[in-house]
Specification:
heterodimer, A: seven-stranded mixed beta sheet, four-stranded antiparallel beta sheet, 0% helix, 49% strand, globular, B: mainly beta, five-stranded mixed beta sheet
Chain lengths: 115, 110
């Protein structure tokens, strides 16, 4: 298994541009999520999905859109990039949302700079 | 989910046990204690989790106090590769919406 993969690894955007961060997992996990991590801080939840066709907002959803058309993929779209969205973005997945048995697997991250 | 409090940083000598404390005084009965770590800006990595009983796996041990208000993560023989930020997270039974604090920076020194 490749686990959780993210593309691209690095990206530089200009203010106002849009782009899509890709996330894929090959573990047949139902639950997927996106986090952002600003320098010196912990991760914050942006959006999550409990299965194909189902998404919901996390702690910091403004400026981002998601969709989940397949179990494997969970892309994150930046609609109109702003410098405040400069961050490292992590995608994560788990088999279910049960805390007693299931843990999250994180991807390697996408480092985004908005000028 | 309950909040957690961790020291901002700790040092540990290579080969010695690293004991990382976490306070979670408002934890409720069905909330789990999870530990993740993040090595040098990589994606966080799961270490261990528990509800009431002490737990051990190939990476670490988790000691939870009887009143469940605090816990300690133990890395029995720390190596330089264990240098990382360690996050203690409290999570309800149905969750996986992890709430990360600032964590503890563990520096393992030779």
């Amino acid at each position: 298994n490749a686990g959780v993969t993210q593309t691209p690894k690095f990206q530089v955007l200009k203010t106002g541009q849009s782009m899509t961060l890709q996330c894929a997992q090959d573990m047949n996990h139902e639950y997927m999520s996106w986090y952002r991590q600003d320098p010196g801080m912990g991760l914050r939840l942006i959006h999550y999905s409990v299965g194909a066709g189902i998404t919901d907002q996390g702690e910091v959803p403004n400026g981002y859109n998601v969709s989940r058309s397949t179990t494997e993929d969970f892309p994150l779209r930046l609609l109109s990039a702003a410098p405040s969205q400069t961050s490292v973005y992590f995608c994560a997945s788990s088999y279910s949302i049960r805390s007693d048995t299931d843990t999250q697997y994180f991807g390697p991250g996408t480092r985004l700079t908005v000028l | 989910d309950a909040k957690t409090t961790q020291p901002p940083s700790m040092d540990c000598a290579e080969g010695r046990a690293a004991n990382l404390p976490c306070n979670h005084s408002t934890i409720s009965g069905n909330e789990y204690v999870y530990w993740y770590r993040q090595i040098h800006s990589q994606g966080p990595q799961y270490i261990i989790h528990g509800l009431k009983n002490n737990e051990t796996n190939e990476m670490a041990s988790l000691i939870i106090t009887e009143d469940r208000k605090s816990s300690t993560l133990i890395l029995p023989h720390a190596t330089l590769r264990d240098t990382a930020v360690y996050y203690c997270i409290v999570q309800g039974f149905y969750g996986n919406k992890l709430v990360f604090g600032a964590g503890t920076i563990l520096r393992v020194k030779s």
